[in-house]
Structures are given as C-alpha cells and as structure tokens.
Amino acid sequence: MKRILFCILITFTSLAAHANDGVFFVNGSQLIPIQETSIELTKEVLTISLCDDGYAKVDVQYQLTNKGEEKVLTMGFEAEAPYNDDETLNKSGIHPYIKDFTVTMNGEQLTYKNSVVATTFGEPKVPVQLNLNQWKAADEAKLKPDEWLENNTLYNAKLDSIVDYSYAYYFTATFRPGINTVHHTYRYRMSFGVGRTFEVPYWLMPAMRWANHQIDDFTLRIQATNTAKHFFMPDSIFLSQPFTVTEGAGKVRRTEHYEESCTEVALRNGTVEWHATNFKPTANLFISSADPLQMEHFVLGGFYDRSEGYEPWSYLPEKNTTYDKRILRNLPYASRGYVFKDPSLQKYFNALWWYMPDPTWQTSTADFTPREWQLINKGE
To answer: How far are the Cα atoms of 207, 230, 266, 299, 353 from residue 292, in angstroms, in the given order?
Structure first.
C-alpha cells in the first residue's frame, strides 16, 4: 500500500502536528481562492478565542483588493479530518468538529457547499477533490484483517494507495472593483494529547495563494475571555515583532521547548496581539497549553487550566500531603488572582509564572466549574 501526494490544481485549500499519543480533532485555516487570481489580500485581523468548553472560536476579518473589473471566484476553507478518535469519513463533507460556520462578503451572508479533498497540510497549494466512489474509509474498503488504515486516511483499491483527507467548505464570491470585505467565523474542537491539555493548530500558509503572496497588514489576536489560559507557541514566524497584551491581565515571555524558541503567554480575561506588515508566513500557527513547559519541574500547579478535562496532578509524583491538597484546593482562586492571606500560600503561588495577583478581585465562586468544586471540596 502506498501513499499518494496530490499537487495538481482542481478544487480548494489550508499544520496540524499530531502524534500517536494525542487526539487530533481539527485545525483552523485561512479562506483562499480556488483558482489563480489577481486579487490581493491587503489586510487581515485573525482572532482566536480559547474557551473552557473544549472549543476555540475563530473570527477573521479580511480586506481584499480587486484592481481589475468585477470578478467571480470560488473560495474555500480546508479542515483536516480527525485523528485518533472514533470518527470516520462523513461523505457529506461536513466536518464533525466544526460548528457555526459563517461567511459574509461586503455585508451579505453567503451560502456554502462541502466536499472531501486530499489534505495539503497547510501548504499554499490547492488539493484534489476526491471521488468517494473510488476512495474508501477503512470500514468501507473491506481490507484484509492484517491491513491497517488510519481514520484520517482513505484507500483506493485500484491504485492500492492511501491518502490523508480533509473536509472543504467552499462558496462563490463576487469581487467588485476596489476594496472588498469578508467576515468569517466558526468554532472548532481543540485537540489534546499526553501532557497537553489543549492544542490549537491553525493553517496560515494558504494565505500565500493570493496574488500578492503575502498579507500586507496582518494582526493576530488570541483571547481568553471570562477565563484564564496559559499557553505557548513556536515563534519562528513571529520573531520580527513581539507579542503584547492589549486587554485584561497578561504576561508574555520568550522561552524554549526542546531547544526551540517559543512565546509563552498567560492571560486572564485578556487578549494578546501580534502585528506585522508584508507578512509572508513560512510556517503555520500552533498553540499548545503550557503543560509541556512545566512537566520537567514537577511543580503542583505549574500549569493550571479551568477546562473540565484538566487534571492538575496527572503527570506529577504522588501527592498526598495536607499541604499538597491545600495547593490543589486553592488553584481556582489563584487562577482568578486571589491574594492569599496565608504567607506560605502566597509565597508558593508567587513562584508560579502564570499567577497574576489581583487585589481588586471580589472573591466570588459564581463562575467556578464543577471540576474546580471537586478540587475545592475534596482536594483530589
């Protein structure tokens, strides 16, 4: 069985680093033109909100400039199929972990269609639409018991080949002369893995398919609204400018993970922003929870997240002392900036980089999650 790589032009496009020790649900991606075009991507504001329900919200504002006559294009969005979960091929082309997909152009909401395509892994090329009469999922391909097919791949018996597949969302867009605006929103399920509470991949490189092969004016905003998040990003494509906290409470610093330069961020009801002009993405965006940065230190609370699935002691040595349980019980309060009256607790949390004390916080448990109440009531 051999793997086929597609690189011919036909219908649409969009890194998702996923490993065997994790569950990959879906990546986000840019909107791109299906066919070659003279239209330029002159401005983009990409906002990614990290939520406690396991989803990331994406809101993208595009400004595109058509220097010629009115033009009709097919535009597309590609999202890679899930990996290491129980989902299999959805022949309708609708991704099982993308919700509330909308696109508005020049103030008018557009309708869209779906299809299954060969994955481009975020490269600025257009993937091939797959003929599902020939490309089959494992349960439909009727392979021999000793043959193995992952749930994010399809098999073609005639070619004896496999291919990674994605779900495409595409629509017809009419570009009037001059400036055109596109507003694009959706939610997608965050992935996770061993030692990683959440992962948010987003394909930036497909933006290179526009005529100017860059984003003239690009702004990336990452938000933690009504929650707190601690995460990092490999920053090879972000070295030209620093990230800055523009809203709420936050911290940013440069760090390393496996000898790779990264940007580490802690936010509480805040926003971190990065801006550049003439931006030519040479890699894709990958946001990961900060657990991997702390694991080697085995610090209880070295990473904290309010998500329901988060286990603050999962990769730590056995912790049974009364003091350890006090730390666990107080993690939800520390996440909200509580200034502890107990000197030993305050000293402990002051040593955690993500902790941002807020003397003005009115102690309230109204937004505590059920998982946080388990920590508070049981310390386990």
So the answer is: 30, 11, 14, 12, 14
- Pair 63, 178 in one domain: yes
Taking the C-alpha atoms of residue 328 and residue 299, their distance in angstroms, rounded to an integer, is 11
Indicate if the pLDDT at residue 26 is higher than 70. Answer: no
Q: Does one domain contain both 236 and 317? A: no
Q: Are the C-beta atoms of 262 and 217 separated by less than 8 Å?
A: no
- For the stretch 208-265, pLDDT in tens is 889 999 999 999 999 999 999 999 999 889 998 999 999 999 999 998 877 788 999 9
Same domain, 232 and 310: no
Question: Residue 4 phi/psi, 5° resolution?
Answer: -100, 140
Burial class of residue 86 (count of CB atoms within 10 Å of its CB; 0-12, 13-18, 19+): exposed
Give the containing element (helix H, strand E) for 332.
helix 322-335
The residue among 264, 292, 320 that closes a domain is: 292
Per-residue pLDDT, averaged over 353-358, amounts to: 95
Same domain, 180 and 308: no
- pLDDT(5) > 60: no
Question: 198: how many CB neighbours lie within 10 A of its CB?
Answer: 25
Look at residue 308 in the predicted model and tell me its pLDDT.
77
**CATH code at position 245:** 2.60.40.3680
The whole-angstrom separation of Cα 162 and Cα 130 is 12
Q: Is the pTM of this model over 0.85?
A: yes
- Identify the pLDDT of residue 88: 83
- Binned at pLDDT 50, 70 and 90, residue 307 comes out as confident
- What domain range includes position 343? 298-378
Q: Are residues 150 and 44 in the same domain?
A: yes
Q: Residue 364 sits in a domain of what CATH number? A: 1.20.58.1690
